[in-house]
């Protein structure tokens, strides 16, 4: 028996033998070291003395386990904690093994301090969370304009292309609106670029709030914005554009009134195959031409590409 006693004492983990009533009947020297109690302070006392008070139902779990004792290996998914004599808690891993000696039932408890391992796991989890956050930020920066928070040109081109594919598949119309702020250079020249940036942010927020939820709103660059909308015909697109124009004109608390000119291009439902990139390029060109006409027809107005021929000569 001496060799078994030496194994019990010299095992690097804390060992406890607990009887059916939950009392500690044996403890090795590692248990003394780990929990801070002398062996005499452990033996004969309920094992709950080593469990933090916040786990108040441990005695119920232990009693239930004793009625159907089974081996429990280390490495479970449940976080376990033990209590030292000084009142400090520490994370542990526990193996349970039922034993029968002279007709009596006991449980061998192997307790391992995993403070260092848990600290490493927590550090890894924190690093993983930080990497995910950085990845999300990078993805946001890659797809969004830094000043206004709207989609940038790269993201718009991708999402507008997907929208055109959807329109083709559903045999629906699609519309592009090109918006350019009127006399924006004068705002920068008179009030400085900080005010110009404030205007761009206010316009971006207004466009986002006024457009439909599924519309694609992006900053085209400088003081130009673009909106892609699915399912709008020519008449409906003009109504939508007018709504955006009026919303921008209603912006308050700027140092000077802000207005925008809007060019519209509408793609009617298409039959047969078409090259999405080419169609998108054509729509953008048409919207740009309509915008140019709106600018030269007096600004602060909406112009559809299909009606350019009816516009008067440039007036301003």
Structural account:
With 316 residues, the protein is α+β, with helices and mostly antiparallel strands. The chain has two domains: 2-115, 2-Layer Sandwich (Beta-Lactamase), CATH 3.30.450.20; 147-310, Alpha-Beta Plaits (2-Layer Sandwich), CATH 3.30.70.270. It is 44% helix and 22% strand. It has ten helices and ten strands. It has helices at residues 2-10, 29-35, 39-42, 58-67, 115-143, 153-170, 184-191, 193-210, 234-249, 276-296; strands at 14-19, 24-27, 80-83, 89-101, 104-113, 174-181, 216-221, 224-230, 260-267, 302-304. The protein has a five-stranded antiparallel β-sheet with strand order 2-1-5-4-3. It has a five-stranded mixed β-sheet with strand order 7-8-6-9-10. β4 and β5 form a beta hairpin. α7 (184-191) packs across α8 and α8 crosses α9 (234-249). The protein is elongated.
Features:
316 residues; alpha+beta; Beta-Lactamase; Alpha-Beta Plaits; 2 domains; five-stranded antiparallel β-sheet; five-stranded mixed β-sheet; 10 helices; 44% helix; 22% strand
Number of helical segments? 10
Assigned CATH superfamily of the largest domain:
Reverse transcriptase/Diguanylate cyclase domain
Distance between the termini: 107 Å
Order of helices and strands: HEEHHHEEEHHEHHEEHEHE
Parts with pLDDT < 50 across at least 5 consecutive residues: 311-316
How confident is the prediction overall: mean pLDDT? 90
Structural class: alpha+beta
